[in-house]
Amino acid sequence: MSSCHSSILIRHSRVLLSALLSLSMMCGLRAQTAPDAAELTKLLKDFLAGAGRNDVAMHERFWADDLIYTSALGRRKGKADIMRELRAEGPSKPGDETANYTAEEIRIQQYGDTAIVAFRLVAITDKAGKKETKNYLNTGTFLKRNGKWQAAGWQATAIPGATATPTP
After folding, report:
1. N or C: where does the chain have the smaller number of CB atoms within 10 Å of the terminal CB?
2. Domain ranges of the chain
């Protein structure tokens, strides 16, 4: 075999080996059973409980500084925008509209230090004794940095006409 043919064979072998290595690495990044599902679920539920009270500290803990949030109204904002709005509103006071948020149908897919958390948000508000229930599909992308999970991406979509199913 000539050295030219050997060189071509070696080059093709390297390309093939590179492709196989890349493919095997990509396969290793498939969604795993989420080892941190309990931690992420608790973080989500704690956040929703705090969100109903406009808990600034809980929002500070939950959202990553580089957050990209798309609201159900189609408005894009970052963590600084959310924090500014919360501080302007202040904590809930007696007589204010109250809100109770719960997460239903939670699905978590984890990819190492990245997790996708999808759920149906049930929002029950009480305005002067009149209760209103709205449902949203939310999807959050969480990153684990310095041992702490935070939402770096968020998408909320209102479900038109959906009502909550009462839960015990």
Report:
1. C
2. 1-30, 32-158
CATH number of 32-158: 3.10.450.50
Q: How remote is the C-alpha of 49 from its chain's centroid? A: 16
Q: What is the pLDDT of residues 52-88, one digit of tens each?
A: 889 999 999 999 999 999 999 999 999 999 999 999 9
8 A C-beta contact, residue 104 and residue 167: yes
DSSP 74: S
Residue with tokens 């890349």: 22
| Dihedral angle sign, alpha carbons of residues 83, 159, 143, 57 | positive
130-158 pLDDT per residue, tens: 899 999 999 999 999 999 999 999 999 99
Q: SS3 of 119, please?
A: strand
Read off the tokens for 63.
Answer: 């959202």
Quickly tell me which residue has 């196989």 as its tokens.
20
Residue 116 burial (CB count, 10 A): 17
Indicate whether 16 pLDDT > 50: no
